[in-house]
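Tutorial, part two.
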Amino acid sequence: MKYQKQSIRVLFFVFLLACLLTGLAGIARVPARAAPPMQAATNIVISEFRTIGPNGGNDEFIEIYNPTGNSIPIGSWQLKALTNSGSEATRATILPGTNLGAGQHFLIAHTGYIGSVVPNLTYGTGIIDNGGIAIFDNLGNRIDSVG
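Running the prediction step on this input gives:
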């Protein structure tokens, strides 16, 4: 009787081990699928922003970035502040003839900005903390926005 109980336990353990190994072998046969292909960037994006910095509410900036493989003309584009009620107000207009090369950044900052990077363009009226920021092209199309 003692040996019969041990035999049953051993057989049960072997059965569980076989089930486990069979299950693992089944998992190993599942073909791996690749992640969906990334879509190529097609336009400028707001890559970084700050509406209040170490020097207070006027220590703010907006950085736009060109993730595409081509230079993009950004002359006459506008940076607008968006309020929490939905109204828009222009803060800065990029000089006509300005191009943003592939992989390049363009820094737009308040005149109170104290960062170490010199801005490409400055503005004087701050952006509220509970609103948003948008960049519009020269035809008035919203290119990107954050809030």
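The radius of gyration is 29 Å. In part three we will examine how such features are distributed along the chain.
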